């Protein structure tokens, strides 16, 4: 019944009806026991009735205190109610006690007075003695029941003290010793056949007969029980029948424990057993007994903290001395001593009771004690840990028998020892687990309390691991029923692995290799994310959670230092065994230190990798995690301190990754996924790891310095590439490459990695490299690009045709949907199209055999496969692009490779000769190589036949040749020639092939002229590797040009009557007329012009003082060295500039100094192969037959007859043509940089790879000017009269005419012109070429010569290296002398030339100075 509240109507109508209602209420409350007692227990009914009556009386008295009811009326009612119960006086006294407390706190004094008057009115039916017990002394004083409250308090304290502390008298003399003697005799008899009830009756008789104290009798019973613990059932039944209250038994037991709490006392195990048995049978309560046990919980917490502090101090002591063999022996002795102390029974009654509880299977009370202590403090003691292991054994045994065969039931890894489970002596133990679901009931919690101390029982360790393996097998099966429960169980097993299995492995003393392999059987079924999380918790958190683990960690670290200090190439086997043994239990700590050493010392990589052969599978997996953690460490910098190169630590880790992953069966998915995630985050530094892994596991090497022999071998088949295309012949990569391929396909990482690397190239420049040094940006770009090429090559060579076609999307999806750059998209899809063509051709060939049919079927296959590609590429560019190029031509260029164009016969022969030394493999390898060579030869023939049939549809006749060549270079040649070294060779070979096929509307001469004329912008926009490729491309182009230049017969055979060398088309001409072609001598003039332009561009780049320009041009020049320079004066000018760079950069930029010094030495060695200009091309320029005006319609963009390639000095037409050519050269810039105009933002990634086509479209209006440009650059020589000058004098003036290619005027101008324009030159900084000309001087024009050589100078003329402005003046002077002979210039002509030259020098100097400054102020990738 709820709390009663008297209605206000009762109080207001008290005398009429309220009094009667209240009396009836109280009467009804007293009778409720009679009516409802059948439904409630006696005690519950009694308590409820008293509470209801107290509430009713309280409400009535409170109304009196409030003044709502008169005092006499309430007193009369209370007197009447008193008769309803015998204890009503006590109930009313309780109500007065409550009101006493409440009214004493009220501020209204009149309410307190009302209360005292009410109590005084009830003296008649409430005894005074009861009021004195219940009410406050001050209230009693106000009522007059006591005289003074203070004296009453003092007397009350004395009485309570006397009653509490004074011992009750007991007549010990009444007890007879004979009774105790008989009692002991009775308890000491054989109890096996005696019932406890019979003994209990005898005890009762002895107590009554000899007046024995019952408590002393109970104490004697416990003493006898302590000596006869084997009779648990008898004594527990006797005590249960004998005892009256559990508290008394608990006090007697507590006094026994206190007896053994002295300084040198040790509590007997039997006493702990008795207490545990009594707790187990609920005869006493744990909370009552726990208060009697020592030490206190606070003391235990302090002890745990002290142990942790001592462990950390021990670790610091270890760190302060170098480990040795003697120190190892001392450590073992100390360890054994510590183990002996830990195995010694602890002087801790709580732990002794816990051990006893666990031994009898009382998990409930054991868990309660463990919860009161620090984590793993209880199981730190061996006896407790073993007792808990015994209990876990019994709970898991049923489910273990269902999942493990009987033959392996007791199987423990070799070398392990465990305790056999024995059954408990009672049935009140945790319920055994019959299924995996039952393990959640008690087993997992027991293992959680056990923690790292499972190492005491390897048998149980193996059982838990095998249960986990059986569960994971069921979890991974398709027929799992309850997914939610399975997920919960999975989380439980992961927690056990984290908190129990891995820490226990760290503490195992025995050789735990078997346990490690057993644990790997479970872990390998977890996803790598779960495994790496477990390893991270183990390595970074678990070792700091327990004193033992803290000590083990530091001991392992010291041992690792000892081993690594002695690891060499000679001691790999011995050190490897030590590393393997140490890694079985604590691999993470060991590997962390080893990787730290590798980051510091790269010479440790080889010995460390060789010493890892003794690791277990689990150790290899942990090694992979540790490598990833070391690479991803945010505290480690990815670059060196100068931020220009990748850090050596990262490079060492990458090299170690490649070596270890290729040599040992380490799972790769975690490492590859990490690299993928880093690419998604816009970070490319870690790509060096992928590069090393692919190189070592697949044998695919991307080298920056590839030899010509290797480059030639790269054009062959897969076998030739493997044997002749790499520096290091990596053997036996079949298994490792298969592992890498399987991981990429199973986890679907191949295509994402390719696409992310292709996009990250732009990200390196525009996102990642915003705040980085340009040198580092270039290295990261090259690393990203090289890794893409390497990874794509691995996929193409290792994936089957079906897998590759299934993996790589078609070209339009790659470019339009994934936004992949076009060069990378074609690089990825190129093998797919090749596979499809070959597969389709083979299918068609099976239908009908024959050589002719084979070629025909191949053509049909090409048409079927490439038709969709031709349609797809149309969407890649605006429609205007295809006005000049056909999509078929574009697709053909991008889908072919060097393998399709030529057979490297020399490379095949070299590799075969190399294998002659290996007699065993020679025959087999020779047969394979010959078969591959023959197969490639047939393939090349089919491809060339295909190109011959397609060439007529490649280029449109409606477009101008100038625009066609521009777009061909812009969209095809330049993007691909810098992609890779073999692509550079391919581009040069493709241009030659297009020429050899006599492709209509293709001007070979114009194409070569565009390539060689202006290379400054291309060189400035390249990275280091791109410069290597670009230089190789120019070298291959020059190689073709040099072959044509070397012999007139070769030129006539390969160039004469070819459309690419037509100068104009007469009406009805078919290209067979000699007059329509460029003759051999004119071609030599053009080649000299190209060499001259290369020199001019090279010196310009060297004079910019920009690091990127200078480095790139030195790389390009090194690649060109076999073929350039060939002209003596050009080589001398270049040598002078290189020597100057060596002097200036020796202390400033050592890397540039190294490049320049290397090139300078090679250049000097090539000087013997250089020839004078007169030998390079005939300077006697024959007269060309003029063509009729109506026939002059140039096919190569030339509207005039072919003239000398050397510009005439005083020709305004040449000035216009030269400027147009410089402007027109912008359209042929490579696509590897983005164009910025006046600070505009760079374009998107697509515009970075392709020059804005709109500029080309807008320039169509200048088509006529473009044609004039080419005409100006390829003019035929003007007839000149016979000169009286000797050849030596002419050579001297020819050398004098080349001045330094700076942006100021030439220092070789006549002196009166220098004086007129006010120009001075520091001649001390320029090298002069001295040519003796005393005997061969020509007196035809002495004044002019004196002006050229200086009036006060010696007869030895001095000149500087060619420059951009002085080149024009020198060429003009030479043209003057050759055209007009000995004719003197008029004064008007001289003044006119001086004015033009002055204007051009001022304007040109400012523009070029501004341009040079802009190069210095921008990063190279924004030029």
What does it look like?
With 1423 residues, the chain is mainly alpha-helical. It is built from 67 helices and no strands. The two termini are 93 Å apart. The model is unreliable at 33-41, 322-326, 341-346, 406-425, 1065-1075 and 1181-1423 (pLDDT under 50).
Q: Helix coverage percent of residues? A: 55-70%
- Kindly name the structural category: mainly alpha
Count of helical segments?
67
Report mean pLDDT, rounded to a whole number. Answer: 77
Radius of gyration: 52 Å
- What fraction of residues sit in β-strands? under 5%
How are the secondary structure elements laid out?
Layout: H1 8-12, H2 14-36, H3 42-66, H4 71-81, H5 88-104, H6 109-121, H7 128-134, H8 137-143, H9 149-165, H10 177-188, H11 196-210, H12 214-227, H13 232-242, H14 246-259, H15 269-280, H16 286-290, H17 297-319, H18 325-343, H19 349-360, H20 363-371, H21 382-403, H22 443-450, H23 458-476, H24 483-507, H25 513-523, H26 528-540, H27 547-564, H28 572-583, H29 587-600, H30 605-611, H31 617-631, H32 648-663, H33 669-680, H34 687-698, H35 708-713, H36 718-724, H37 734-746, H38 750-768, H39 774-798, H40 801-807, H41 811-817, H42 822-847, H43 851-873, H44 887-895, H45 898-901, H46 905-914, H47 919-950, H48 961-977, H49 981-996, H50 1004-1013, H51 1016-1020, H52 1024-1046, H53 1048-1054, H54 1080-1103, H55 1107-1120, H56 1128-1145, H57 1150-1166, H58 1173-1176, H59 1212-1224, H60 1245-1249, H61 1253-1258, H62 1263-1273, H63 1287-1296, H64 1311-1317, H65 1342-1349, H66 1364-1380, H67 1387-1417
Helix pairs in contact: 2-3, 2-4, 3-5, 3-6, 4-6, 5-6, 8-9, 10-11, 10-12, 11-13, 12-13, 12-14, 12-15, 15-19, 17-27, 19-20, 19-21, 21-22, 21-23, 22-24, 23-24, 23-25, 24-26, 27-28, 27-29, 28-30, 29-31, 29-32, 32-34, 33-38, 34-39, 38-39, 39-42, 42-43, 43-44, 46-47, 48-49, 48-50, 49-52, 52-53, ...
């Amino acid at each position: 019944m709820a709390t009663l509240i008297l209605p206000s109507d009762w109080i207001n109508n008290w005398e009429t009806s309220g009094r009667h209602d209240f009396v009836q209420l109280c009467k009804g409350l007293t009778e409720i026991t009679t009516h409802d007692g059948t439904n409630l227990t006696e005690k519950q009914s009694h308590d409820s009735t008293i509470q209801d009556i107290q509430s009713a009386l309280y409400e009535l008295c409170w109304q009196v205190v409030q003044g709502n009811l008169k005092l006499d009326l309430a007193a009369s009612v209370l007197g009447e109610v008193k008769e309803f119960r015998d204890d009503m006086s006590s109930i009313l006294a309780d109500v007065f006690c409550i009101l006493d407390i409440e009214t004493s706190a009220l501020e209204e004094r009149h309410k307190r007075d009302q209360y005292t008057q009410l109590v005084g009115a009830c003296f008649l039916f409430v005894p005074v003695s009861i009021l004195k017990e219940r009410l406050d002394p001050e209230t009693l004083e106000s009522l007059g029941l006591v005289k003074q409250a203070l004296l009453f308090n003092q007397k009350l304290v004395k009485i309570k003290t006397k009653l509490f502390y004074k011992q009750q008298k007991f007549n010990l003399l009444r007890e007879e010793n004979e009774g105790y003697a008989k009692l002991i005799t009775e308890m000491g008899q054989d109890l096996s056949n005696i019932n406890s009830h019979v003994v209990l009756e005898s005890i009762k008789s002895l107590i009554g007969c000899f007046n024995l104290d019952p408590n002393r009798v109970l104490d004697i019973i416990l003493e006898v029980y302590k000596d006869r613990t084997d009779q648990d059932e008898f004594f527990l039944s006797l005590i249960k029948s004998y005892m009256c209250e559990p508290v008394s038994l608990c006090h007697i037991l507590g006094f026994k424990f206190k007896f053994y709490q002295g300084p040198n006392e040790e509590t007997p195990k039997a006493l702990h057993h008795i207490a545990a048995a009594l707790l187990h049978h609920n005869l006493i309560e744990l909370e009552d007994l726990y208060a009697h046990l020592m030490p206190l919980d606070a003391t235990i917490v302090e002890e745990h903290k002290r142990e942790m502090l001592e462990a950390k101090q021990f670790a610091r002591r270890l760190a302060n001395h170098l480990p040795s063999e003697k120190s190892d022996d001392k450590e073992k002795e100390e360890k054994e001593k510590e183990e002996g102390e830990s195995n010694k029974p602890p002087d801790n009654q709580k732990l002794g009771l816990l051990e006893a509880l666990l031994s009898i299977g009382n998990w409930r009370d054991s868990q309660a004690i463990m919860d009161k202590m620090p984590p793993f403090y209880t199981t730190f003691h061996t006896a407790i840990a073993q007792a808990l292991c015994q209990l876990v054994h019994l709970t898991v045994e049923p489910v273990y028998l269902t999942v493990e065969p009987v033959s392996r039931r007791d199987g423990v890894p070799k070398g392990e020892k465990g305790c056999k489970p024995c059954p408990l002596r009672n049935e009140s133990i945790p319920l055994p687990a019959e299924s995996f679901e039952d393990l959640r009931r008690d087993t997992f919690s027991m293992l959680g309390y056990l923690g790292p101390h499972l190492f005491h029982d390897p048998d149980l360790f193996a059982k838990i691991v095998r249960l986990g393996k059986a569960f994971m097998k069921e979890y991974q099966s398709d027929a799992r029923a309850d997914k939610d429960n399975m997920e919960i169980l999975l989380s439980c097993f992961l927690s056990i692995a984290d908190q129990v299995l891995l820490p226990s492995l760290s503490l195992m003393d025995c050789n735990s290799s078997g346990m490690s392999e057993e644990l790997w059987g479970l872990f390998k079924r977890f996803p790598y994310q779960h495994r790496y999380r477990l390893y991270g918790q183990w390595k970074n958190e678990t070792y700091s959670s327990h004193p033992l683990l803290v000590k083990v960690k530091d001991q392992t670290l010291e041992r690792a230092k000892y081993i690594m200090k002695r690891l060499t190439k000679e001691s790999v086997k011995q050190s490897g065994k030590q590393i393997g043994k140490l890694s079985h239990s604590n691999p993470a700590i060991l590997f962390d230190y080893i990787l730290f050493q590798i980051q510091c010392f790269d010479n440790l990589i080889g010995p460390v990798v060789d010493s890892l052969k003794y690791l277990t599978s689990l150790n290899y997996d942990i090694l992979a995690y540790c490598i990833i953690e070391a690479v991803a460490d945010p505290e480690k910098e990815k670059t060196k301190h100068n931020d220009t190169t990748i850090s050596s630590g990262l490079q060492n880790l990458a090299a170690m990754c490649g070596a270890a992953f290729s040599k040992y069966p380490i799972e790769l998915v975690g490492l590859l996924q990490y690299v993928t995630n880093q690419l998604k985050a816009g970070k490319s530094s870690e790509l060096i790891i992928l590069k090393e892994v692919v190189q070592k596991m697949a044998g695919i090497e991307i080298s920056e310095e590839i030899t010509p022999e290797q480059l030639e071998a790269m054009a062959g088949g897969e076998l030739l590439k493997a044997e002749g295309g790499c520096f290091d012949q990596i053997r036996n990569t079949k298994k490792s490459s298969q592992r890498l391929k399987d991981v990429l396909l199973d986890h679907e990482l191949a295509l994402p990695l390719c696409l992310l690397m292709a996009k990250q190239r732009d990200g390196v420049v525009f996102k990642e490299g915003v705040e980085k040094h340009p040198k580092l940006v270039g290295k990261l770009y090259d690393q990203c690009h090289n890794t893409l090429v390497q990874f794509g090559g691995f996929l193409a060579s290792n994936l089957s045709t079906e897998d590759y076609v299934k993996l790589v999307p078609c070209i339009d999806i790659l470019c339009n949907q994934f936004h992949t750059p076009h060069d990378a998209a074609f690089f990825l899809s190129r093998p797919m199209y090749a596979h499809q063509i070959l597969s389709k051709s083979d299918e068609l060939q099976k239908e009908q055999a024959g050589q002719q049919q084979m070629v025909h079927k191949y053509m049909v296959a090409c048409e079927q496969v490439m038709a969709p590609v031709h349609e797809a590429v149309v969407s890649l560019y605006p429609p205007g692009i295809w006005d000049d190029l056909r999509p078929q031509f574009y697709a053909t260029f991008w889908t072919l490779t060097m393998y399709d164009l030529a057979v490297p016969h020399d490379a095949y022969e070299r590799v075969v000769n190399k294998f002659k030394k290996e007699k065993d493999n020679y025959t087999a390898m020779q047969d394979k190589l010959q078969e591959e060579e023959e197969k490639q030869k047939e393939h090349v023939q089919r491809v060339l036949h295909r190109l011959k049939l397609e060439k007529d549809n490649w280029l449109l006749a409606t477009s101008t040749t100038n625009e066609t060549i521009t777009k061909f270079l812009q969209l095809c040649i330049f993007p691909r020639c810098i992609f890779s070294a073999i692509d550079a060779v391919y581009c040069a070979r493709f241009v030659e092939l297009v020429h050899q096929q006599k492709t209509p509307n293709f001007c070979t001469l114009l194409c070569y002229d565009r390539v060689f004329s202006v290379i400054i912008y291309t060189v400035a926009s390249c990275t280091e590797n791109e410069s290597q490729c670009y230089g190789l491309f120019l070298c291959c182009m020059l190689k073709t040009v040099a072959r044509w230049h070397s012999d007139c017969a070769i030129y006539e055979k390969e160039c004469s009557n070819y459309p690419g060398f037509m100068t104009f088309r007469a009406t009805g001409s078919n290209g067979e007329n000699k007059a329509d072609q460029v003759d051999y001598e004119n071609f030599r003039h053009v080649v000299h012009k190209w060499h001259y332009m290369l020199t001019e561009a090279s010196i310009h780049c060297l004079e910019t003082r920009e690091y990127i320009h200078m480095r790139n041009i030195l790389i390009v020049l090194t690649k060109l060295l076999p073929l350039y320079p060939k002209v003596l004066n050009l080589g001398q000018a270049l040598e002078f500039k290189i020597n100057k760079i060596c002097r200036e950069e020796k202390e400033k930029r050592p890397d540039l100094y190294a490049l320049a010094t290397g090139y300078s030495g090679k250049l000097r060695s090539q000087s013997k192969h250089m020839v004078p200009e007169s030998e390079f091309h005939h300077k006697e320029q024959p007269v060309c037959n003029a063509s009729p005006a109506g026939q002059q319609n140039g096919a190569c963009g030339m509207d005039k007859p072919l003239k000398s390639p050397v510009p005439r000095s005083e020709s305004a037409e040449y000035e216009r043509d030269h400027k147009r050519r410089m402007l027109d050269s912008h359209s042929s810039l490579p696509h590897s940089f983005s164009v910025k105009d006046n600070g505009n933002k760079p374009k998107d990634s697509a515009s970075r790879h392709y020059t804005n086509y709109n500029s080309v479209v807008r320039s169509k209006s200048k088509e006529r000017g473009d044609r004039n440009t080419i005409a100006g650059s390829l003019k035929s020589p003007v007839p000149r009269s016979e000169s009286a000058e000797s050849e030596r004098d002419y050579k001297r003036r020819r050398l004098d005419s080349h001045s330094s290619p700076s942006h100021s005027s030439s220092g070789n101008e006549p002196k009166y012109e220098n004086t007129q324009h006010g120009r001075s030159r520091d001649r001390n900084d320029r090298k002069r070429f001295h040519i003796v000309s005393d005997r061969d001087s020509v007196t035809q024009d002495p004044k002019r010569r004196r002006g050229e050589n200086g009036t006060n100078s010696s007869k030895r003329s001095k000149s500087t290296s060619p420059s951009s402005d002085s080149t024009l003046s020198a060429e003009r002077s030479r043209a003057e002398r050759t055209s007009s002979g000995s004719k003197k210039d008029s004064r008007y002509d001289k003044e006119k030339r001086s004015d033009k030259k002055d204007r051009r020098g001022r304007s040109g100097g400012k523009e070029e100075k501004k341009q040079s400054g802009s190069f210095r102020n921008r990063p190279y990738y924004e030029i």
